[in-house]
Amino acid sequence: MPDKQKGLIEAFNEVLPSASRRFCLRHLHNNFTRAGFSGSLLKCALWAAASATTVKFFNARINDIVKLDAEVIVWLKEKEPIEWSKSHFSPNTKCDILLNNMCESFNSMILDARDKLIITLLEKLSYLLMARLQANMDKADR
Question: Are residues 48 and 58 in contact, defined by beta-carbon separation less than 8 angstroms?
C-alpha cells in the first residue's frame, strides 16, 4: 500500500478498520534513502530487519542498524514494525510478502487488454494463467 497517497490510510482505517496494512519494502527503502540514509550496508541491514522471522532476530538486526547509523532509529520509530517486518506480521495473515511487485507484474501482463471489454480481458487472463500453469508443469516434469 502506498504511503504517498494522501488520505488513503485514513480511508482504509475508516472503511476496513480490522484490515492489516503493510508497506512495500522497496518503497519504504526509497523513502529511507530520501530521508538521507543511503548506502548498501544500511540497505542490507533494513532488508535483513524486514526479513527477520522472529522478534529476537528483528531486534538483533535493528541493533545492527543502530551500529551503522543511530539516527535511523528515529526515522524507523515512525513506522510500526507490524507494517514492514515479517517478525511482526499477524499469524492470521496468509502472506508474508514484503514487496508489491505482484501487483505491478500483473498490471504489466494485462496492459494490452486493460482497455478491452471485460470478456476480452478475462479471456486474456485465462490464457495467461493456462500458459503459466503449463510452464510450471513443464518445469516440474524436468
Answer: no
